[in-house]
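Task: fold both queries, return tokens.
Query 1:
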Amino acid sequence: MQYMTTIDKINADILHTLSRDGRISNLQLADQVGLSPSACLRRVQELERSGVIKGYRARLDPAQTGRAYVVYVAVGLSEHTKAAQMGFEAAMQGADQVTECHNVAGAFEYMLRVEVANLPAYKAFHTDILGTVPHVRAITSYMVMGSPKDTRA
């Protein structure tokens, strides 16, 4: 059973610190947020247990993992049915190139974050995967030229 955890100033400080460095030791974390190590550990465990902290991730170097070419893709569907949405979402679950898939409000139905090695790899994804999904009406690609701020873990 999940329940609401209070996000007071100390919990907010813990979350901020962990979001920047998920491998920080409990001793260092406790020192940074002004708690004893045991009190800090109890708070972190409570944040994990309640689902506020969903997990920890490694930040990878996109250039070294063959995913340095990032494209945001706006996708419009030809039908606005539950079946069309479910079919599209299932297809995106199976596409390793898609690292994020968001159902959005506005001029199109979905915004994707696609990470591939280069332009030819994106063209192959665009043509062979995205272009073959039923009900895809419009695809607008936005190639990322730089990321002066990126706080994703």
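Query 1 returned. Query 2:
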Amino acid sequence: MRLIDCLSAALLLFTAACSPHAATGGVAAPAAAPAVHPVSGLAVIPLSVTSAGKVHRFQVELARSDAEQEKGLMFRTAMGADEGMIFPMSPPRRAAFWMRNTVIPLDIIFIGADRRILNIAANAVPYDERPLPSADAAAGVLELIGGRAAALGIGPGDRVEW
């Protein structure tokens, strides 16, 4: 075999061995399905809050549509410490949330267009229908289990990414 043929064969073998499909016998592995919450059926996405140089990570349900946002966490009886729900708002606008049919206390965190926390309605009282307003136009609202923001030291000015 000529040297060029040996080099070509070696390159072909190397390329096949390094292919992302090599471990699956040449078949592309299916892409990982997005996580879906077992109760709401909403997509679950990662979200982080950076506070005093520390990053707090959460897995949050993504309430995109008007119907999803209207229902929110109503009737939910439990939520994990690192779980929550994010309500994106485009365009950003003044927002007010209430606790109608909401069984568990929540921290309602209003997020500005710059992705920084505007204000927090901490430990919102279950079933209370008084409006809890944003301090300014909100690009998103994050709901966490009541008291979680204070426990982690999360407050106005902290950065939120989703």
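Both queries returned. Flag for query 2: Residues 1-26 have pLDDT under 50 and may be disordered.
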